[in-house]
Write a structure and sequence with these properties.
about 240 residues, alpha+beta, seven-stranded mixed sheet, two-stranded antiparallel sheet, 6 helices, about 25% strand, globular
């Protein structure tokens, strides 16, 4: 599943998103990802397995942060970070770019200052739950593990992160020709101001199939409900 958080109308835009690779060898990175998955509400129990998948190149999880949130010249910087860290106090300490590999290729960590990630997103070359979502031989990759801090939704971070990950996908070494994702079917979002499925549709993603019982979600009484999903795909054939 992509982002389980509510998608709200994007008003106050944060335009510049920086994607920094997650480091599965760093205890700080692993703990921060676990905390963000707990905040997201989905798949926090999978983080240990994701360490292996990141090392083996099956996942390419990246932190999301913005130049504006890092810039000392931004007059709203402290307030934006305060919104995030006040709601998520376990995430108040900056972390550094320490990953020395990505997609099984060596990399040199960047020299930019320590940062506070406000979300994460992944490009996957395999999907263990549905093989139609990713096929490396066909240059088809899957957007997964997408989360934006609840405190910073409706700021344009979601759109900016998608722009960044789509640009990353078409570059070496992936050379993606298409991206796929799965998300909650829109009839499950009748109470939301913006429907996640429709948000992806506006970005050019088209439904190619549906599963009626794809997500299993427990309620407050412990009953597990099965929820429908749509699978969406976007061609990148005309991208640079």
């Amino acid at each position: 599943m992509t982002n389980s958080a509510t998608v709200q109308p994007e008003r106050q835009l944060l335009s510049t998103v920086v994607l920094v690779p997650w480091d599965p060898e760093s205890a700080e990175h692993v703990e921060r990802l676990y905390n963000q998955r707990v905040a997201c509400g989905w798949n926090y129990n999978l983080v240990e397995g994701w360490k292996v998948m990141q090392r083996e190149g099956q996942k390419a999880i990246h932190w999301i942060h913005t130049a504006q949130l890092l810039s000392q010249d931004d007059p709203g910087r402290d307030g934006k970070l305060a919104q995030h860290t006040s709601r998520h106090p376990k995430e108040k300490d900056p972390i550094s770019d320490t990953a020395t590999s990505l997609l099984q290729a060596p990399r040199t960590p960047s020299l930019h200052p320590p940062f506070i990630p406000v979300g994460h997103i992944s490009l996957d070359s395999e999907n263990p739950f549905d093989p139609t979502l990713a096929d490396k031989s066909q240059h088809l990759y899957c957007i997964t593990t997408f989360y934006i801090s609840h405190a910073l939704q409706s700021t344009g971070l979601g759109s900016a992160a998608m722009d960044a990950v789509e640009l990353l996908a078409v570059k070496p070494p992936l050379h993606a020709r298409a991206l796929a994702l799965d998300t909650m079917a829109k009839e499950r979002h009748d109470d939301l101001e913006v429907v996640v499925q429709d948000w992806y549709a506006r970005r050019g993603y088209r439904v190619y199939k549906r599963k009626e019982k794809h997500y299993m979600q427990p309620d407050l009484n412990g009953k597990v409900w099965s929820l429908p999903a749509v699978f969406m795909k976007k061609s990148l054939a005309n991208e640079p």
